[in-house]
Amino acid sequence: MQGFGTQEVGELAERQPDPVAALIALARGHTVFCRRDVARVMMALRVEFSGQNHPVGREVHRISRTLVKRCASLIEAGRRNGSIPPGPPAKAVALAFRQCYLRTPCHAERLPKWRSS
């Protein structure tokens, strides 16, 4: 399932000079990716296999956990360099951040299309 946007969005984040820019790139890249038809496949898989002990469901869950870990690492790095203030545990913030950017494309459908740079 690596081809479902995780690599291309992740590469945008890796090119950023600091953790905050990387988090913004993840959110922006995810929104752009979700405007493509292939993103609907991942959504359908998530809905179809959620809560089931099935290899596809486990892989979808693994991808989600990996993303939360990546965001938590960026949040911790931002706290170390002072660009993100202290607060709740990084994993809790990462989960909240993920929920925000997963929902953004739903609302972005009402906005004009744009391309990432």
How do the strands and helices of this protein lay out in sequence?
Elements: H1 6-14, H2 19-34, H3 39-49, H4 55-81, H5 90-108
Features:
single chain, 117 residues, mainly alpha, 5 helices, globular
Describe it for me?
The chain has 117 residues and is an all-alpha fold. It has one domain (6-108). 70% of the residues lie in helices and 0% in strands. It is built from five helices and no strands. α3 (39-49) crosses α4 (55-81). It is globular and about 40 Å long. It starts with 5 loop residues before the first helix and ends in a 9-residue tail after the last helix. The mean pLDDT is 80.
Offer a concise description of the structure.
The chain is mainly α and 117 residues long.
Query: Uncertain runs with pLDDT below 50, 5 residues or more?
Result: none
Number of helices: 5
Mean pLDDT: 80
Report strand %: under 5%
**Helices and strands, in N-to-C order?**
HHHHH
Quickly count the domains: 1
From the spread of the alpha carbons, the general shape counts as globular
Radius of gyration: 15 Å
Q: How far is the N terminus from the C terminus?
A: 25 Å
> What's the helical proportion of residues?
over 70%
Q: Could you tell me the number of beta strands?
A: 0
Largest sheet: none
Class computed from helices, strands and strand pairing: mainly alpha
